[in-house]
Structures are given as C-alpha cells and as structure tokens.
Design a protein that fits this description.
The protein has helices at residues 17-33, 51-55, 66-78, 163-171, 185-203, 252-261, and strands at 3-10, 38-40, 81-90, 97-104, 110-115, 121-123, 129-131, 143-147, 150-154, 176-178, 206-209, 213-217, 220-223, 226-229, 235-239, 244-251. The chain has one domain: Nitrilase/N-carbamoyl-D-aminoacid amidohydrolase (4-Layer Sandwich). The protein is of the alpha/beta class. Helix 1 (17-33) packs parallel to helix 3. The protein is 26% helix and 29% strand. The chain is globular, with a radius of gyration of 19 Å.
C-alpha cells in the first residue's frame, strides 16, 4: 500500500488522568471517523503535573496497567494503529521513569517502544525551568516500527534538535519520522516549525508531530501547532490552536520520488574520511 491516511491528536494534558484519558479516547475516535488508519498522540498525553503525582501512575512495560489497557482498548475499538507519543514508563532499576513512545497495533499489542534519548534540561529567559533528567532516565536505542504505509522512526520532543538521530532512523529505512511533543510556548514560537521542516527536508521523509497545547498548571504552557510535513518540507496538516485532530496521507511513492529527484541522502559522506583543518588565530601585534 503506497498511501495511508494518518491522524494527529492535539490536547492539553493536566494532572487529571481520567480527564486526559477521556479526551484522548474521544479525539482518537474522531480521527478514526475522519479516516485515519494510524493515530499519533502527543508526548505525556496521560499526565502533566508534579513529579510526586507522576510516580503514582507509572506503569511497567510491556505488562502495563490500567492506562496502557485503556490505550489498548482505543486501538481495538478504532481498529487503528496507535502511537502513544510519550508514555510514563516505570524503570524497575531506579526511582526515575522513562519517557517512552509506544506503537500499538489494531489488536492493542505492543509492536515497538522507544525510550527518549535526549532529555530537556533548560533554564529559559521567560523563567521556565525544566530538569527532565531529575526524574527521567534516558534511553539508549534507536527504534523504528512498521506501519501500513511503511517504516516510521520513533523519537520524542527534544530529540528533534539532534539531526544525527534522524539520519540513523533513515539508515534503518524510515520514510516517516514521529516527533510527539510538549514543546514550551517560548521554544515553540521560535523553533518548532523550522526544526520539523528541517528534519523532513534533510531526511526526505514525512514528519508527524502530535503536540500538547495550552496551560497545564504550575505555570507550564505548551505551544501546540501539531504538524504533518511532507518529504519536500511542505506542511500538509496543522492544528494551530486548541484541542483537535488533523489528517493527511502518507505516501511512500512521494518519498521515493523526492529521493530520486534530489538524491542528497546518497551524497552523504562520513567525516571520518575527511580532513578537518583548524586555522590558528593570528598572532597579536606587539
């Protein structure tokens, strides 16, 4: 199958897990009704709140618990593949969690899971301070999964700033890249669109980015603007404001055509085989 309709979900998660799950289910049903065969949820769709509260809802994978079972039921009811953008996975070896992207098939079974590699530790000029590494452990594996349209590379949010990860996913034959996110309002306004379009252009792949929006409590606010970008860098679907869904077709033939037209992926060279010259600074005059 060359072309597959996919859906992205945009919502505003809070510390109210039941409300978050009700919203996720309702929006997934709307995406399925609109024709989506695969649905992508944003990062942290089950919960955004304090670290203490989050510890109480962590679930081990692949066994899961009530939250994962709820998501399994959504996949079964809609008969869609479901990509859980950022699931709060328990780490049995520590008191930290993993920020894990999980692919469920139409039977609700786990096909693949990716633990977020790059953790968001920043202090922004607007006063936003986030230390993801305090309570989240980093992953150490590059992961792709197969969907009806072809292979998708799994990433999460802050990963988007590290192009080498996406090149590695393309080397595993990914034709689409999933970037579920909860981008802050400040960094989103500055960088969100350009980063996603850049990853699409340089990887000549679709980029599918379901996002959080709005005020989550405790002063945290997400940018929204969930996007689907085609392999030429054109935005083909966007949810600019509020909760909602958007759909677009992912076409494997379109990826192949772009890669033939401009074969930049074939032109890559390893820097290990090139010489890097560092120019010495000119000496100051006496």
């Amino acid at each position: 199958m060359s072309s597959t309709t996919v859906g992205i979900v945009q919502l505003c998660a809070t510390a109210d897990v039941d409300a978050n799950m009700e919203t996720s289910a309702r929006l997934c049903l709307a995406a399925a009704d609109a024709g989506a065969e695969t649905i992508f949820l944003p990062e942290a769709f089950t919960f955004i709140g304090t670290s203490e509260e989050k510890r109480r809802i962590l679930e081990p994978l692949p066994a899961g618990g009530p939250l994962l079972e709820h998501c399994r039921n959504i996949a079964r009811k809609t008969q869609t593949h479901l990509v859980l953008g950022g699931f709060h996975e328990a780490d049995p070896a520590s008191d930290r969690a993993y920020n894990t992207c999980v692919h469920l098939d139409t039977d609700g079974e786990i096909v693949a899971s990716y633990r977020k590699i790059h953790l968001f530790d920043v202090s922004l000029e607007d006063g936003t301070q986030l230390r993801e590494s305090q309570n989240t452990a980093p992953g150490d594996e590059v992961v792709c999964s197969d969907l009806p349209f072809g292979r998708v590379g799994l990433t999460v949010c802050y990963d988007v700033r590290f192009p080498y990860l996406y090149q590695a996913l393309v080397d595993q034959n990914a034709i689409a890249l999933s970037v579920p996110s909860a981008f802050t309002a400040t960094t989103g306004a500055a960088h969100w669109h350009v980063l996603l379009r850049a990853r699409a252009i340089e990887c000549q792949s679709y980029v599918i980015a379901a996002a959080q929006h709005g005020e989550h409590g405790n002063g945290r606010r997400s940018y929204g603007h969930s996007l689907i970008v085609d392999p030429w860098g054109e935005i083909i679907a966007e949810i600019s404001e509020g909760e909602g869904v958007a759909i677009a077709d992912i076409d494997a033939d379109r990826v192949a055509a772009v890669r033939r037209q401009l074969p930049s992926l074939q032109h890559r060279r390893s820097l290990e085989s090139t010489r890097v010259r560092t120019r010495k600074p000119e000496q100051e005059s006496p």
